[in-house]
Amino acid sequence: MTTVAPVRWNRFAQWLHWLIALMIVGMGTVGLLMTGMTPSPDKIKIYALHKSFGITVLMLVGLRLVWRLATRHPPEVPGPAWQRWSASAVHFALYVLMFAIPLSGWLFNSAANFPLQWFGIVHLPALWGPDPAVKHLAREVHEDAFWILATLVVVHAAAAFKHHYFDHDDTLRRMLPGLPPPDGDKP
Ligand code: HEM
Ligand code: HEM
Fold it and tell me: pLDDT tens-digit profile of 165-183?
């Protein structure tokens, strides 16, 4: 049986997109601030929360990718080929980075020989044994990948606003929860 591609992202995809975006911004901000804290019990707690929320982001991104690959999604917005290509390339890169950041954090934590408990409930295995070289590399990847992601998100958001304010198409609206369906879509 063939199914018709939906005109907009469904509620699940919309909420997941904004939840993950919000969590990544929060995680990045906390990550950058916490490294400068003087050693204290609060610093340890914040590090533990950063790791637990980071693993949560990893799970949500995994869920999102599975959903994305398993279901029909809205077609590309019509436009010049270079725009469709660059949008796909940026989306692909964002997915890669959304996995690379938490996984490199986990790898860093493992190579530094720190234990990892998800909110104190589930003990997660180490991805690697104690290893200063891997620890150093994973830490670099964790930070650099975050800055690459931050740059791409600025481009990505600017493109969404360009579609909305200059091209007057539904690219942004179809990712916003709670808006009425655009013309031609079934409720
Ligand atoms: C989407 C999820 C995540 C984001 C956006 C994120 C972002 C960041 C950022 C921006 C920093 C500061 C880097 C620096 O200035 O050195 C940082 C540090 C750190 N992150 Fe994450 N992180 C995430 C997930 C994780 C996970 C899952 C773990 C471990 C399981 C983790 C472990 C760490 C650790 C240990 C540091 C401190 C590194 C140090 O003290 O040198 N992060 N994170
Ligand atoms: C950390 C922040 C963000 C990340 C990681 C992110 C990631 C993504 C990804 C990977 C997609 C492709 C969806 C897919 O094919 O599965 C997407 C779609 C989209 N994003 Fe973001 N996004 C972020 C923030 C934003 C912001 C701030 C805006 C706008 C202000 C935005 C607007 C959109 C729109 C409108 C779409 C749908 C594009 C379309 O229908 O073709 N995103 N986002």
Answer: 999 999 999 999 987 655 5
pLDDT tens digits for 4-60?
A: 667 889 999 999 999 999 999 999 999 999 999 999 999 999 999 999 999 999 999
Which positions ≥6 away from 166 have C-beta within 8 Å?
A: none
Helix (H) or strand (E) holding 123: strand 122-123
Q: Which of 163, 61, 54 lies closest to 46 in space, CA to CA?
A: 54
Give domain limits for the chain: 11-175
**CB contact at 8 A, 139 and 108:** yes
Q: Is 116 in the pocket of ligand 1 (CB under 6 A)?
A: yes
DSSP label of 174: G
Q: Ligand 2 in contact with 99 (CB < 6 A)? A: no
What's the CATH number for 11-175?
1.20.950.20
Q: Rounded to the nearest whole angstrom, what is the distance from the C-alpha of residue 108 to the centroid of ligand 1?
A: 9
Ligand closest to the CA atom of residue 49: 1
Whether ligand 2 lies within 6 angstroms of the CB of 84 is answered as no
Tell how far the Cα of 113 is from the centroid of ligand 2, in angstroms. 35
